[in-house]
Automatic annotation (TrEMBL):
This is aldehyde dehydrogenase (NAD(+)). It is an enzyme of class 1 (oxidoreductase). Keywords: Oxidoreductase. Belongs to the aldehyde dehydrogenase family. Residues 13-476 form the Aldehyde dehydrogenase domain. The active site is at 251. InterPro entries: Ald_DH/histidinol_DH, Ald_DH_C, Ald_DH_CS_CYS, Ald_DH_CS_GLU, Ald_DH_N, Aldehyde_DH_dom. CDD domains: ALDH_AldA-Rv0768. The keyword Magnesium does not apply. The lineage of its organism: Bacteria, Bacillati, Actinomycetota, Actinomycetes, Micromonosporales. It catalyses: an aldehyde + NAD(+) + H2O = a carboxylate + NADH + 2 H(+). SUPFAM superfamilies: ALDH-like. The keyword Oxidoreductase applies.
Amino acid sequence: MLEYKELYVGGNWAPPATDRRIHIVSPHSTEPVGSTPEATEQDVDRAVEAARRAFDTGPWPRTEPAERIAAVRRFATAYLARQEELAELISTEMGAPIWFSHVGQVGATLMALDAFLSVAEGYAWEEQRLGSLGNPMVVRREPVGVVGVITPWNVPHFVTVAKLVPALLAGCAVVLKPAPEAPASGLVLAEILHEAGLPEGVVSVLPAGREVGEHLVRHPGVDKIAFTGSTAVGRRIAALCGQDLRRVTLELGGKSAAIVLDDADPSQVAQGLQMASLMNSGQACIAQTRILAPRHRYDEYLDAVAEMVGGLTVGDPLDMANYIGPMVARRQQERVESYIHVGQQEGARLVVGGPGMPDGLDTGWYVRPTLFASVDNGMRIAREEIFGPVLCVIPYEDEDDAVRIANDSDYGLAGTVWTADVDHGLDVARRVRTGTLGINQYMLDFGSPFGGFKASGIGREFGPEGIDAYVELKSIALPFG
């Protein structure tokens, strides 16, 4: 059983303000597998007070960058030592297939840590310039202050590291609120952070629900909010932060398009989309869920993708043989099922999957991997983020039409172009209004900025831009001569 009795408040394990608990239920067996304290507004107040003290009067923001880098490196070393345990924990708690927990949960977290440490070594914390009037200028990058970090359940450690680590490297204090669907994954990070020996007050970890998250967003002691989650919640957070001119970065939803050009090999496209479209059982904001195929070769690409989707193994997430695991919760299973019904009602043609439990499974929050054909980009299944293993194949007339369809979305987070001509694929990618794209694959580069256009968010993570999000710029004019 995954059991925690205390919260991590200001760098120390402390009893929660109340006896409220978050009960963790296995998405596979639907049986209880543990519990943690549920943080309240009083716990947030204690954590922000400790963070405020650590930032305003403590040593952390005033340490040399090299010392902060060394502390984050200790965290990375301690995280690496527990990687097998951490992968199993995430799969048990939120249902990620264990192969993905090794590669896309823990493995990606370790790569992101390494990338941030590398970027921080060469980051321009302070530089001298020649001013426009000929006098010397010092430009400093100073920590933004106390940061409230609010993270989702789907990739709990990876998304946390994308915010926590650059904030720490910049010299900020952090109050982290993990999602209630992955509370133990959050508190185990507190154990590892404690082992790294950060100063008192610098980090708190408080699993809780949306109401407590809103209290953190509104708290006058918080200087910045960093959030990953739904666009609807992101809009609410942006509005609240705007009222107080509080800094904010938002990594939100997606409905990404995979543009298949007519020179692409169907089998290679299908093989690549297995990961790009269906990683983490489709519970990924970057998933390529709109597959745009040329009308004159539509059936070839559809058949190849259908064969891939129909061949996926579904079941116990702790079994390495299974590619697709359960949805995180019953409500998510019901949500995805409802979109499958919507697709049928809208007139899309069901090719693979459909409503109901996958064959051989009678318990768990599972959904059949589903593929729709004859989809129009105006249908809800092509416009709204489903967050499950449901794909649409949309026909296009020519390349201009493909780009038009790709851009005809409220979102702009990710995308791909599939082609035998990489240079031509790059030309097409330049025309798509989205924050990240891949040619013949989709992957995040942790040394380059990640984030979205339009309703997919505000700001960027990773690379030097990821640290930029946690600093304020200060210019100091020095005397002439």
